[in-house]
Amino acid sequence: MPRQFLALHVSIYLAIVGCGGNSKSGPDNVGEVVPASIQAQRRSAQDSGEAPDNDKIRPSSNQVFDPGTELPISGVVRAILQDKRGNLWLGTEDGLCCYDGKSLADCDIKDEFGKGVTIKAIVEDKEDNIWIGHSGGITKYDGKTFRSFGEKDGLISRDVWSIAADANGTIWIGTLQGVSRFDGEEFTLFEIPEAEPDLSRGVTSAKIVHCILVDRHGKIWFGTNGGAYIYDGNALSNISENDGLCNNAVHRILEDNSGNIWIGTTHQGICRFDGQVFTNFTEDGTVDGKEIWCIHQDNAGNIWFSGKRFGVYCFDGNTFTKLDEEDGLVSPGIMCILEDQERRLWFGGAGGLFRYDGHSFFNVTQNGPWR
């Protein structure tokens, strides 16, 4: 019997629109009758079936979804978030998707020129709003409607690379041209010193902010090409190679359950900072891979990290275990990692979306397997 197929394709043109619908467990109103200006698609997802290896697949800006084939969710998945309601949000090279536990909805955000965008960051704030950072600015989803913001609204740059939400409700946005903060009413520029552009990267600048972290003390960490900057609410400080940081090109920052700061860099791998001393796990040969793209801590306290062409590492506090193609992970680079509320581990990157069951990796297509 052919799979049932219904797709919802929401086109957002930097305006306030609703993602219509009747889904009970997904975003509100997904599946209802939508305005005529909103084109509809919806992908039905199944919980069974084997998925093919897709490491060669490249993203398409005009992807056509065929219910009769095991198509990838996207050639590249760059961001994953599970919200408080349990919905799984996927940011891809082709746009935004949401899996509500039953089906996969596609919300295709357009920039001010009507072109598709690349999703680079997704966060949830204290009021349960979803914030999406992309190549056309930022978009807010309040559970009913999407609203997008760009340079015309005061954002310092439309090319957004990172987002964080602090305890006060302020949204911090890292862009190609520095940092903006949004208080719900207006954007203000937050100055961070310039650094030498990393000319080895396809996209770079003296002001790019690759990542933002809000730590347990409320301090804001910014990953730049000039090391990590820390804002304590009053003053801005910096840690760099001069202080023992493994490399100034900081791509990802994580605070673990013990308060240690893990820093993944573009050129010299990963290190851990306990507030006083750096431990460089790449320099001493403990782990392979010098280009780190993502770091995540699971519920058991394990640290997972990955990057360009070295698989995935899991650190249990004593031992680093490497997982790669022999374990079913067919991808030249993982860009995001998430453990969901059911303790399932998700990995997104080149080749699409993968899930790890504790023994091996499975490539998750539009039709699953989701469990």
Describe the structure.
This protein is mostly beta strands and 371 residues long. The chain has one domain (9-58, 65-364): Methylamine Dehydrogenase, Chain H. Helices cover 0% and strands 41% of the residues. Strand 17 and strand 18 (227-231) form a beta hairpin.
Detail the topology: elements first, then pairings:
Elements: E1 9-13, E2 17-18, E3 43-44, E4 77-82, E5 88-92, E6 95-99, E7 103-110, E8 119-124, E9 130-134, E10 137-141, E11 145-149, E12 160-165, E13 171-175, E14 178-182, E15 187-190, E16 209-214, E17 220-224, E18 227-231, E19 236-239, E20 250-255, E21 261-265, E22 270-273, E23 278-280, E24 292-297, E25 303-307, E26 312-315, E27 320-323, E28 334-339, E29 345-349, E30 352-356, E31 361-364
Parallel strand pairs: 1-7
Antiparallel strand pairs: 2-11, 3-7, 4-5, 5-6, 6-7, 8-9, 9-10, 10-11, 12-13, 13-14, 14-15, 16-17, 17-18, 18-19, 20-21, 21-22, 22-23, 24-25, 25-26, 26-27, 28-29, 29-30, 30-31
Please identify the structural class as seen in this structure. mainly beta
Helical element count?
Answer: 0
Give the CATH level 1 class.
Mainly Beta
Strand content: 35-45%
CATH fold-level label: Methylamine Dehydrogenase, Chain H
Shape: globular
Give the overall pLDDT as a whole number: 84
Rounded to the nearest angstrom, the radius of gyration is 20 Å
Unreliable segments of 5+ consecutive residues: 1-68
Q: Quick one: CATH superfamily?
A: YVTN repeat-like/Quinoprotein amine dehydrogenase
Number of domain units: 1
What does the largest sheet look like? 6 strands, mixed
Got a strand count? 31
CATH architecture: 7 Propeller
| Portion in helices | under 10%
